[in-house]
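User: I'm curious whether this sequence folds into something compact or stays loose and floppy. Could you predict its structure so I can see for myself?
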Amino acid sequence: MEGRMLKSLIEIEGMAIAGLIDEVTLEDCVEPPGWKKIVVVDRKGGMYETKCLEPQVAKRNYMVLSAYTVRWSSLIVYGEKETNLSPL
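Assistant: Here's the prediction. I'll summarize afterward.
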């Protein structure tokens, strides 16, 4: 697990919802055979992974995280400046 930090699925989902994830992948686990883990890369290049998950759980959550990353994170506004509007 060189260069990767273990995080819970809920922590990774929170990062994705906040628009902090750039890349999501699935990797096979050695033990138990057939299980998978989700690996993500954040905006600063940090890598995180989940524990090994049952295949259907991993695939379903991968799809959700991918949707957050690809579709919805572009809708998040960062550091928008306030404008001085005069009250009517």
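Summary: The chain has a mean pLDDT of 85. Residues 36 and 53 are 5 Å apart (CA to CA).
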